[in-house]
């Protein structure tokens, strides 16, 4: 069973990332209910994450960071989720936005990513993502002006927005040969950027995933990292899929694991009957399926071969982790019995938090079409 320990000094006590996350766990768990009940961003947790060294953990060591690999980062996110699902999910967004350029540096020696990674290591800036709301088609308008592009956009699901420094996003620009999506980093301190108070949700209430309004910010031409055809798969998205989704779904698996632990503790307080024993067995089975699926996602990511085949494997894993994590958490509610209905026991929050696993791309219908087309040898170059 996973248990939280008290907060310990961050340096040298727990050299492994999951250990550092565990040392923060009891404090984060103590703040989780208040953030949930008040729809309040977990800002204090981010302060502790900055002090802990976890913000720069995924930056390669030769660029000043912790040099953590994908498995270590996933273990860190999963451990955070045992204590506070909102912190884990929001931080997975920063973590994957660091891990993607880190992979490109390590495997491709892509020079353009170096300044960003050095900033994360030196300044501990927080990166935000709009990828889930943009995905292949992109969103927002980019208008060509002298020296760059004027951006008008509303970016939804921007986790960590109240504290973020740089939003990694894009916008659509109309060109004679068809619409293109440009990718860039958007400084959150720009006077043309505003965080809207929109995040009032069923679960993951502490993630601060508000809408971000962009009205007239000009991105310099030299700050555009990539331009691609709208609606078509670009190799960058195979890299994103390979790296980002094991990290994001580690948060949901961690929520399900903590739900299981709470349920077992509550069930042990009374004499279990055959029905409760059966429910506990079903819960264990569903949870194991989610763990196996995430394990395969991590193994695929570690293989380091971004491609349609890899994306297919990752997205199948994404659907399986979601399905089985949700099922395991539902069974945790049943196993615990009526005690699960009380908020003080923490199960109902985890039940609400895990529902978010349904909504990240590719959602089940799109994933199944992608997988079906892959199996049948059909074109997968269009939007999913």
Structure overview:
The chain has 384 residues and is α+β, with helices and mostly antiparallel strands. It folds into three domains: 17-125, Acyl-CoA dehydrogenase/oxidase, N-terminal domain (Butyryl-Coa Dehydrogenase, subunit A, domain 1); 131-229, Butyryl-CoA Dehydrogenase, subunit A, domain 2 (Beta Barrel); 235-376, Up-down Bundle (Butyryl-CoA Dehydrogenase, subunit A, domain 3). The protein is built from eleven helices and eight strands. The strands form two sheets. A four-stranded mixed sheet has the order 1-4-5-8.
Q: Could you say which structural class the secondary elements and strand pairing correspond to? A: alpha+beta
CATH class label of the largest domain: Mainly Alpha
What value does the average pLDDT take?
Answer: 94
- The CATH H-level superfamily of the largest domain is Butyryl-CoA Dehydrogenase, subunit A, domain 3
In N-to-C order, the SSE pattern is HHHHHEHEEEEEEEHHHHH
């Amino acid at each position: 069973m996973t248990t939280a320990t008290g907060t310990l000094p961050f340096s040298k006590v727990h050299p492994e990332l999951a250990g550092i996350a565990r040392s923060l766990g009891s404090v984060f768990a103590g703040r989780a209910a208040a953030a949930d009940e008040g729809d309040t961003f977990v800002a204090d947790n981010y302060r502790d994450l900055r002090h802990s060294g976890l913000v720069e953990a995924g930056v390669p060591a030769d660029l000043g960071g912790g040099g953590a690999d994908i498995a270590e980062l996933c273990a860190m996110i999963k451990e955070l989720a045992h204590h506070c699902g909102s912190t884990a999910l929001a931080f997975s967004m920063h973590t994957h936005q660091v891990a993607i350029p880190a992979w490109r540096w390590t495997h491709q020696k892509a020079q353009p990513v170096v300044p960003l990674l050095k900033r994360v290591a030196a300044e501990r800036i927080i990166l935000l993502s709009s990828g889930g709301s943009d995905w292949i088609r992109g969103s927002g308008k980019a208008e060509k002006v002298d020296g760059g592009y004027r951006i008008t956009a509303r970016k939804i699901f921007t986790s960590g927005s109240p504290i973020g420094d740089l939003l990694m996003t894009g916008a659509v620009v109309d060109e004679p040969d068809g619409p293109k999506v440009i990718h860039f980093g958007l400084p959150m301190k720009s006077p043309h950027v505003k965080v809207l108070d929109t995040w009032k949700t069923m679960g993951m209430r502490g993630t601060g995933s508000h809408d971000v309004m962009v009205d007239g910010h000009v991105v310099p031409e030299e700050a555009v990292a990539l331009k691609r055809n709208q609606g078509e798969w670009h190799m960058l998205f195979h890299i994103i899929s390979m790296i980002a989704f094991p990290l994001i779904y580690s948060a949901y698996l961690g929520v399900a694991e903590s739900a299981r632990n709470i349920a077992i503790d509550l069930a042990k307080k009374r004499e279990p009957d055959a029905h409760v024993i059966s429910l506990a067995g079903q819960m264990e089975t569903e949870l194991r399926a989610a763990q196996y699926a995430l394990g395969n996602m991590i193994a695929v990511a570690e293989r380091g071969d971004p491609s349609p085949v890899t994306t297919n494997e990752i997205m199948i894993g994404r659907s399986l982790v979601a399905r089985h994590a949700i099922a395991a958490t539902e069974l945790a509610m049943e196993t615990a019995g009526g005690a699960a209905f009380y908020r003080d026991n923490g199960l109902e929050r985890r039940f609400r938090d895990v529902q978010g696993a349904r909504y990240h791309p590719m959602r089940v219908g799109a994933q199944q079409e992608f997988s079906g087309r892959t199996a049948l040898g059909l074109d997968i170059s269009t939007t999913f």
